[in-house]
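User: My instructor asked us to take a sequence, write out its structure as tokens, and then describe one feature of it. I'm not sure where to start. Here is the sequence I was given:
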Amino acid sequence: MNRLTAARLASGLALGLVLLAGCGSEGSNTDCGLDACTVTFDRGVDAKASVLGVDAKLVGVDGDKVTVEVAGESLSLTVGEQGTDVGGLNVAVQSVTDTEVVMKISR
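Assistant: Let's start with the prediction itself. The structure tokens for your sequence are:
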């Protein structure tokens, strides 16, 4: 392997680690890209995630209304509505079921 190929491989691995380090969760699953994350919160547990440099926590669900805390701010969101801007990010609820809440958080 020549030096250029080795440098490209190392650069690609470093970028992959940076992307993976951008997401963390407890009681939730995250799927992150460069500018957006889809967060699936488990209902009935203390669900939270750290994505795109902010913490997000599921506070409660009442029908199609979801209360979350993102970047320290409490938000009341409705499923399917346009997102709300907070901390330089757009936060929207994509779906709610008996077992989970799916949100999109993007730059």
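For the description part of your assignment, you could build on this observation: The two ends are 38 Å apart (CA to CA). Try explaining in your own words what that tells you about the chain.
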